[in-house]
Amino acid sequence: DGVSILNALQKHGIVLIIHSDIHNQEGIPSSRIFEAAAASVVIISDENAFVKKHFGDCVYYIDISLSSEEIYAQIQNHMDVIRQNPEAALKKAEKAHQIFVDKFSMDAQLLRLQSLHSRVESFRPKDSYFSSWVEKIGALFPFKQSAIQSDLIDPTPLALVNNFDSSYSPISGIDFH
User: Fold this and answer.
1) What is the pLDDT of residues 116-140, one digit of tens each?
2) DSSP state, 148?
3) What is the 8-class DSSP label of residue 155?
4) What angle do CA 165, 171, 175 make, to 5 degrees?
């Protein structure tokens, strides 16, 4: 429902994120990093390349290539650091939340569509499906402001649009109807 997971995360205040081997091999994140950052909680994560690149020093990292005892010791060490200096941990959580808002929130992603559209427009016919879809999204989420207009009745589902950019997009699974 988009709210329950955030409430659960906030109730506990700290999230441990361990990505699957495939996530780490491909350098892609699970949705947990976005949920944790959106919830403004302290994040402990494995050394996933995407997380390190985009969230940097606002996450406490663990090396999951070590033994289970060593992984536990790393987590315990981070918990001790968090308990000893909760203000610093809170600042990390706030910074992660701001990164989420600036880079990965729905409106931030949609606002970047205009830039993406400009880059690919010269390679695609003017009557392309992508061009008409971006115009529809532009009507729903104006690119120069974040106000939403309610006059759009039939936007195209996002799942039907090809990704013409090699950047990651956490909104790829969300449909508009």
Assistant:
1) 666 666 555 555 555 566 565 555 5
2) P
3) P
4) 115
**Site of tokens 């940097």:** 56
Torsion angle in degrees (nearest 10) through CA of 96, 99, 101, 103:
-140
Sheet holding 42-46, edge to edge: 14-17, 42-46, 60-62
What is the total residue count of the chain? 177
Q: Each residue of 28-73: pLDDT tens digit?
A: 999 899 989 988 899 999 999 999 999 999 999 999 999 999 999 9
Residue 40 is encoded by which pair of tokens? 């403004």
Pairing assessment for the beta strands 60-62 and 14-17 based on DSSP bridges = unpaired
The Cα–Cα gap between 22 and 113 comes to 28
Which long-range contacts does 164-169 make (Cβ < 8 Å, 24+ apart)? 164/116, 164/120, 164/130, 165/116, 165/119, 165/120, 168/28, 168/29, 168/50, 169/109
Q: In this structure, is the dihedral angle defined by the CA atoms of residues 102, 106, 110 and 111, taken in order, positive or negative? A: negative
The rounded radius of gyration (Å) of the Cα atoms in the chain is: 19
d(CA 16, CA 45): 6
For the chain, what is the total number of helices (H) and then of strands (E)? Answer: 8, 3
* CA triple 112-113-118, angle to 5 deg: 105
